[in-house]
Amino acid sequence: MMKNIYPLQFTPILKERIWGGEKLKTVLGKSIESSTTGESWELSTVDGDVSVVANGELQGRSLMEIIDDAPNEILGTAVYEKFGKQFPLLFKYLDAREDLSIQVHPNDALAKERHNSFGKTEMWYIMQADTDARIIVGFKEKSNANEYVENLKNKSLLSILDDVKVKSGDVFFLETGTVHAIGAGLVVAEIQQTSDITYRIYDFDRVDAQGNGRELHVDLALDAINYDKVDTYKEYTKEVNQSNSVVDCPYFTTNFVPLDGQVSINKNGESFTVYMCIEGDFELEYNSEKYNYKKGDTVLIPAAINSFVLNGKASILEIYIS
After folding, report:
1. Active-site hit among 114, 200, 206, 214
2. Which residue of 101, 219, 229, 262 is surrounded by the most CB atoms within 10 Å?
3. What CATH number is given for 244-320 in this structure?
4. pLDDT score for 226
5. What sign has the CA pseudo-torsion 109, 249, 51, 102?
């Protein structure tokens, strides 16, 4: 049993991307040093990108190490039983100064067979959207592999894909197989299965400083794609000081909590909880200690922390596995 259980914050893992910008600093207060930072990985156990604790006595230890020491206390009894010592989710903030590539993620079976990995079911919460910003999600109408390949060859793929104008507060849930791209002018909170398997199918013919295009995975994507028309937009309620259900899937549950004042939270020890602060700021009181969070912060509440109090004026995403 780990004695020193407390709410954990981790050092963001910042990623340079061809499409990245500076909003992770200007909108979310991250200490980025370049003008093309595309992602802040907030909580990760992806190989080569394992999060390290940034606060308290466990500072400097990796998420993998603390799970290894106390899997039930950190992950939760039900999560540990289901996933072993793997941390099953990946949390990120993204800044798309330009369009991301059009891509697709394989399902669990395909990802296991090809890459010995989880698939990647994910959701996006739009934190900030420039005027006319849009995303690409799925096909306009039911399609098939032949039509898709034909349009890819003719550089007319965008004509058969659905693009949707978005605004702050919109949520999209993307099951594996959904062709998608985050469009320019968006800051997004992303919650997904732990996986870094992405099949890039079209990159708008972009090249880097050396004149090279990024690698495409057109063949791998063919049987990973869901060619049906899909509904990805999620409507949700915004009852103040309540956990409003947004996404409830086998991989994660996400609630929206509009905090205004004080709320007592009680948990059963079966799953960890993650809070992403998407607007405002709040304080978490546990064991007579107070912890403060602002917009752009992400905190992991170990499963062994059963009751605590939230206080402040903030919009929070609450994520756990049910």
Report:
1. 200
2. 101
3. 2.60.120.10
4. 97
5. positive
For the cut 90, the answer to whether the pLDDT of residue 291 exceeds it is yes
Nearest CA-CA partner of 243 in 169, 316, 170: 316
Per residue in 16-63, pLDDT (tens digit) is 999 999 999 999 999 998 999 999 999 999 999 999 999 999 999 999
Asked if 13-222 and 244-320 have one fold, the answer is yes
Separation between Cα atoms, residue 59 and residue 52, nearest integer Å: 7
**How many residues can be counted in the chain?**
322
Burial class (CB in 10 A: 0-12, 13-18, 19+), 102: buried
**Domain assignments of the chain as residue spans, ordered by start:** 13-222, 244-320
The CATH superfamily of 13-222 is Jelly Rolls (2.60.120.10)
Judge whether 200 counts as a catalytic residue.
yes
